[in-house]
Design a protein that fits this description.
The chain has 566 residues and is an alpha/beta fold. 39% of the residues lie in helices and 18% in strands. The protein is built from 22 helices and 19 strands.
Length: 566
C-alpha cells in the first residue's frame, strides 16, 4: 500500500515484513530499513552506491554495455524487447553499475548489481562489465568490491551466460595472483550462477542483514526434495552459522566496515617494505632465562596452564592488540567456535591473528568445545593464513588447546588431513609467522597453528606430544600417574626452550597469568613486537628457507646430540 502527494511523490509505504505503515522520508533516512522490524528493503544500484562510497567519489567506467542477443531467444516477447523495457524501467543500461570510488578514503573498483534489471541476471554484457571492473582494479592496484543481487545466469543468453561465471572468476583469479583484495557484499537475493562464482569466491564475503544466498532457490529445493526447509534457511544468519560468510553487517554499519577492510588492504601491500613503518619500541619485555627460571613442578605447571581464569585468545585480542575484526567460516559448511581469527592491529601495523578459544566458565568452555578445533576450525585458520599471505600481512597465532577434536564427526570430516594441510601450508607461507603458546599446546592440534618463524611460550604454559593423562593411560598402569608423566614429557617452557622447540619464554606475573591478565597482555605485546619487527624486513624466500631450517634441526641426529648434551 502506498500514498502519494499531489506532486506524485510517495509519502507512505507499507513494510513487506511487518506490514507497518511507514513515512517514506523517515524510511529513506533509515537507509530503507524498516524501523519497526528491521527489514532491509532492496536498493537500486545508484542508491546503494550513494550509501557506500565517499560523497562525490564515484566515477563510472567509460565502457558502455553492449546489447547482445546471441541465440535469438523468444518466449512471450523477443529478448531485445525485454532489454528495452528493463532499461526504461530502471534508467540503467544493464543489471550492474561499475566504476571506481573511495570508501573511507581508500580507493577501490566497484561493481554493484541491480535486481530490478531482469532480476539482476548475469548475461554477457554484465559479465563483460564486471570483468572490465576487475581489470581496472588490477591495472590500478586497488581492491575490488562486488555488491551482488541476482537471481542467477540469464536464461535468454543460453550457455554463453553460463560462461560468464568463468569469465569473471578468471579476472578475480588475476587479482588474487597479484595480491589484491576482493570483497563481496551479498544482498537480497543472490542465487544461481552469481552465488556459485564471484559472489562467494572473493577473499572476504560480507552479507547484509536479511540477505538470502544459495545455489538453488528454496522453491526449487522443495520441489526436488519434497522436504520442508529449516527456519531461516539461506538467510545471512544461516550462512554465518554454516561458515559461508565472514560476517553479517546491518546496512547502517556496512560503509564503515568496508572502510576498515579496505584500509587493511592498503597497508598490507606495504607489509614487507618497512621504510614507512613506525620505529620499533625502545625496549621489549625481558625474556625468561630458562637456566635461571624458578623451578616449578611440571604437574603444577600443567594445572596453571589449564586454569579457567587464564587469559584466552579473545582476551588478548582485546588487551594486547589495538583493534580486531573477526572473520568467520571455512567456506565448506562450518564455523568452528574453538578457533577465532581475523584482522587486527599492533602498534599501528595490520596483521592476521588466529588462535584457539576456550573460555572462563563451564558454559563458555562447552560452547567453544574446550578449545579443541574441528576440521572446520583448522580450515578456517588455513583460509585466513592464505589470505594474509596474499595481501601481505604477517600472521600471529595464539595456541591454547588440549588437542584437536577427537570426536566421530571430526574424523568423518577429515581431521587428520585438515591438520596436515595447515602444517604443510605454514611450511611455505611467504609471510612472517609468530606463535605464542599461551596455555596448553596439545599435540597436532597445537602444531597446526605453530609452524612459525618464532615460537614463544608463556612461562607457565605447556606444550607436548600428548596430555599427561593420555601418556599415563598408555605407558603407566593408569591415569593416576599423570603427574609422573608430566615430569617425564619435559613439557614446560624452560624445558622446551632448552630443547630448541621454543625460541623465547615470556614472563608471567607473580603467581601466573590468571592472577594479573593485564600485565600478561603487556608482556605478550612487547614480546610480539620484539620478535615480529625483525621478520618484516626479511624477503619471503629467505623467510621460508629459515623456517624450514628451523624445523629441520629437530631431525634424529640433532635431537640425539641435544639428548647427549643433557
Amino acid at each position: 500500500m502506498t500514498a502519494t502527494a499531489p506532486s506524485g511523490e510517495t509519502l507512505w509505504s507499507r513494510c513487506g515484513g511487518c506490514a507497518a505503515l511507514l513515512y517514506r522520508k523517515r524510511l529513506r533516512r533509515n537507509l530503507d530499513v524498516c524501523p519497526e522490524c528491521g527489514l532491509h528493503t532492496r536498493l537500486a544500484a545508484p542508491e546503494r552506491i550513494s550509501q557506500l562510497v565517499d560523497p562525490g567519489s564515484f566515477r563510472p567506467l567509460p565502457d558502455r554495455a553492449v546489447e547482445v542477443d546471441p541465440i535469438g531467444f523468444v518466449d512471450v516477447l523477443p529478448y531485445p524487447h525485454r532489454l528495452t523495457a528493463a532499461r526504461a524501467d530502471t534508467g540503467l543500461a544493464e543489471a550492474v553499475l561499475c566504476g571506481t570510488a573511495t570508501v573511507g578514503g581508500s580507493r577501490c573498483a566497484l561493481a554493484v548489481m541491480d535486481f530490478r534489471f531482469l532480476g539482476g541476471s548475469l548475461g554477457c554484457a554484465v559479465g563483460e562489465l564486471i570483468t572490465r571492473t576487475a581489470e581496472q582494479a588490477l591495472e590500478s592496484g586497488v581492491p575490488l568490491v562486488l555488491v551482488t543481487a541476482s537471481g542467477g545466469a540469464r536464461m535468454q543468453e543460453g550457455a554463453l551466460s553460463l560462461m560468464q561465471m568463468a569469465t569473471v572468476s578468471q579476472a578475480m583469479a588475476a587479482l588474487r595472483e597479484a595480491g589484491l583484495l576482493t570483497v563481496s557484499v551479498l544482498t537480497d537475493p543472490t542465487y544461481g550462477g552469481v552465488a556459485a562464482s564471484f559472489a562467494t569466491s572473493a577473499d572476504l564475503v560480507l552479507a547484509e542483514s536479511g540477505a538470502r544466498m544459495g545455489f538453488a532457490g528454496p522453491r526449487v529445493i522443495r520441489q526436488v526434495t519434497g522436504r520442508s526447509l529449516p527456519e531461516g534457511f539461506q538467510t545471512a544468519e544461516f550462512l554465518l552459522r554454516h561458515g559461508q560468510v565472514d560476517m553479517v553487517v546491518p546496512r547502517h554499519a556496512l560503509r564503515a566496515r568496508l572502510a576498515t577492510l579496505l584500509a587493511v588492504a592498503g597497508t598490507g601491500r606495504r607489509a614487507t617494505k618497512r621504510s614507512d613503518a613506525p620505529a620499533p619500541p625502545s625496549a621489549s619485555a625481558p625474556a625468561v632465562d630458562p637456566s635461571r627460571a624458578p623451578a616449578r613442578d611440571a604437574w603444577e605447571t600443567v594445572r596453571l596452564a589449564r586454569h579457567p581464569a587464564r587469559p584466552t585468545t579473545l582476551d588478548y585480542l582485546e588487551t594486547t592488540f589495538d583493534g580486531f575484526t573477526e572473520l568467520h567460516g571455512d567456506r565448506l559448511g562450518g564455523d568452528c567456535p574453538a578457533v577465532v581469527g581475523g584482522l587486527a592491529r599492533l602498534d599501528g601495523r595490520h596483521l592476521m591473528v588466529i588462535g584457539h578459544q576456550k573460555g572462563h566458565t563451564t558454559a563458555e568452555l562447552a560452547a567453544r568445545n574446550f578449545g579443541m578445533a574441528t576440521p572446520a576450525g583448522h580450515r578456517k585458520a588455513l583460509r585466513l593464513m592464505r589470505l594474509a599471505a596474499r595481501i601481505g600481512l604477517p600472521v600471529v597465532t595464539l595456541v591454547d588447546t588440549p588437542g584437536a577434536d577427537p570426536g566421530v564427526d571430526a574424523e568423518e570430516h577429515g581431521q587428520a588431513a585438515a591438520i596436515a594441510e595447515n602444517i604443510l601450508t605454514l611450511s611455505m607461507l611467504p609471510t612472517p609467522v609468530v606463535t605464542v603458546v599461551t596455555g596448553e599446546g596439545g599435540s597436532g592440534g597445537a602444531l597446526a597453528l605453530a609452524v612459525a618463524d618464532r615460537v614463544l611460550m608463556l612461562q607457565h604454559a605447556v606444550y607436548s606430544v600428548i596430555s599427561p593423562e593420555g601418556c599415563a593411560a598408555i605407558l603407566w598402569p593408569g591415569r593416576t600417574a599423570a603427574p609422573q608423566a608430566a615430569r617425564a614429557l619435559r613439557l614446560t617452557a624452560p624445558d622446551l626452550c632448552r630443547l630448541g622447540v621454543v625460541d623465547e619464554v615470556v614472563p608471567e606475573p607473580d603467581g601466573s597469568a590468571a592472577d594479573d591478565p593485564e600485565a600478561t597482555a603487556r608482556a605478550v605485546r612487547q614480546a610480539l613486537l620484539a620478535n615480529l619487527l625483525p621478520l618484516l624486513d626479511v624477503p619471503a624466500v629467505t623467510l621460508v628457507q629459515r623456517r624450514r631450517r628451523r624445523f629441520r634441526r629437530f631431525g634424529a641426529a640433532r635431537a640425539g646430540a641435544r639428548a647427549g648434551a643433557r
